[in-house]
From TrEMBL:
Compartment(s): Membrane
Compositional bias (Low complexity): 15-24
Any single GO BP term: response to antibiotic
Keyword Transmembrane helix: yes
Official protein name in the record: ABC transporter permease
Pfam families for the chain: ABC2_membrane_3
Highest taxon, organism lineage: Bacteria
Amino acid sequence: MTTTTPTTPSRPEPRGAAARPAGPRAGGGGIRPNRVAVGIARIGYETKGYFRSLDAVFFTFLFPLIMLGIFTAAFSSQGDLGPTGSQVSVGAYYLPGMLAAGLLLSGVQNLAVDIATEKSDGTLKRLGGTPLSPVSYFLGKIGQVFVTGALQAALLLVAAATVFGIALPTEPEAWLTFAWVFVLGITTSALLGIALSALPRSGKSATAVVIPIVLVLQFISGVYLQFSMLPEWMQNVASLFPLKWMAQGMRAAFLPEDFAALEQHGSWDLGWVAVWLLVWLVVGLIVSRLTFRWIRRDA
């Protein structure tokens, strides 16, 4: 005679259980995943995805280099620019502006379009069903902007020195100014990109919403046009936005001291560069925190 062991009816799996990894739950006394470690791990994933997108590579990563080449080739025949005795080549004059534009493109344009698209196609909704926290998601995005922004700046500087024959600074103080303007500018741009991603209603409209904003800022902030030649009212408007201050900080690092007289107040105003970028960093952080959702409000 054989005996059978009674079985206890199994409980039905709770909805969404398949999306949770095996192991102790965060709220049940288990080990909570380290949000910073997860965010750092996502940097590589986000960076690979960035370079797989050809339009992002062209319009954000290579665009400043292409524009520097166009401006150098188109206006070099007009001679050097700047105050008498401290003139520089056209390429040297436009290099700081292109470095600043690269920060804006890598952070604001790239993240605003990317996150709006992920929100529209359901990627964020799927991520919201996993243990991934918004902190880890943000760290992955911001880290990707740091990596691509640093590579972009390095490419610009190498091309400037080797292809366009632009003499780079030799003073340590100039490179220190470049370093802190870069770090503060890229962080501010990344947070503003996350904040701006809430504005487009869909992924299809993201480029139509974001690119005009970025383009207008470049024209009024001394990237494509000499800032000293703009009307005073336009300079005042540009001073309300971070790109003008990023471009001014980059000019302080790469242009001779005599060029400071061409700025709006006759000096580099590096203290105000830091203040305005910090103000916009805080604005981006607050708006990102208030507006970020894994799913659209109208979903």
